[in-house]
Design goal:
By secondary structure, the protein is of the alpha/beta class. The protein has a single domain, classed as Phosphatidylinositol (PI) phosphodiesterase (TIM Barrel), CATH 3.20.20. Helices cover about 35% and strands about 10% of the residues. It has eleven helices and seven strands. The chain has a five-stranded parallel beta sheet, with helices on one face. A two-stranded antiparallel ribbon has the order 4-5. A hairpin with a 6-residue loop joins strand 4 and strand 5. About 25% of the residues are buried. This is Glycerophosphoryl diester phosphodiesterase.
Length: about 270
């Protein structure tokens, strides 16, 4: 995984896999001992790989400078056009608002799904700007998950935050990040409650809350949990149409069965 050590005194130490964050993995790296680096692909090459697998695209445009040789907002779109990728399969992302606005104004087919990333470190983030962003043409907003949830009055459950309510009221679709990475749900709501958000709730309960509030997408460093939850919801829709959510998610986690089932036979 992408990692580095700022205090390293050699290139090998700087790039060593020993620097990989504990919430990530080197499972797909070329060598476990850090002696061989994976081959980096260009954005254009990544499009070919993902397209061949029939998947969708969620590229994030990093901060760039015109003299750096890095991709700019127009070049990113051009490479999808050259590959004949339908705009409906692409969710362009950026923390830089001018990038989002450029896509909306100059490449509306791609701008319709451009995602305004919110990296605010203070609880509440862009929540108060939801109306403005929607009026400017933004359709997707993506804050850290801590912005979206709060504890209920007695600390026994999770509820949508004011940020989530404002974004929904403005008509924005919400994507969030990153499940199974930030267990403290930072930035967290300032609270004197005994149970602050996320510290006493497992990931499935968190995902269940996000699903119920209408979040349309969740990024995760580890796909197993979100896939398990999505499979459970899909099962409910096809096998138990009267049910709407998994509910009792803690029981799901503890039993490793879908929606509180005691055995696989109850599910399938």
């Amino acid at each position: 995984m992408d990692s580095s050590k700022a205090s390293a005194t050699s290139a090998a130490a700087y790039m060593s896999m020993d620097n990989t964050a504990t919430f990530r993995t080197d499972l797909y790296s070329d060598a476990w001992d850090g002696t061989v680096c994976p081959t980096l692909v260009t954005h254009k090459e990544s499009i070919a790989l993902i397209n061949a697998a029939g998947r969708k695209f969620t590229p994030e445009l990093k901060t760039y400078f015109s003299w750096s040789g890095s991709l700019t907002y127009d070049q990113v779109v051009d490479e999808y056009k050259q590959a004949k990728v339908e705009p409906s399969r692409v969710w362009l992302q950026s923390f830089n608002e001018p990038d989002i606005m450029w896509w909306i104004q100059n490449e509306p087919a791609f701008g319709a799904q451009a995602v305004m990333l919110d990296g605010s470190a203070i609880f509440g983030g862009f929540g108060h700007r939801a109306g403005y962003l929607a009026s400017a043409g933004v359709r997707y907003i993506a804050p850290q998950l801590g912005h979206l949830i709060a504890s209920n009055a007695n600390g026994t459950g999770l509820v949508p935050s004011a940020y989530a309510r404002n974004a929904t009221a403005a008509g924005l679709k919400i994507i969030t990040w990153t499940v199974e990475r930030n267990y403290g749900c930072s930035p967290a709501e300032a609270s004197t409650r005994a149970t602050p958000p996320c510290t006493s709730f497992n990931e499935l309960e968190l995902i269940d809350t996000l699903y119920k509030m209408g979040v349309v997408g969740v990024f995760s460093d580890w796909p197993a949990t979100v896939t398990f939850y999505a499979s459970c919801i899909d099962h409910l829709r096809t096998k138990r149409p009267a049910a709407s959510t998994c509910g009792e998610v803690k029981a799901i986690w503890n039993r490793s069965g879908c929606c509180g089932a005691q055995s696989a036979r109850e599910v399938f």
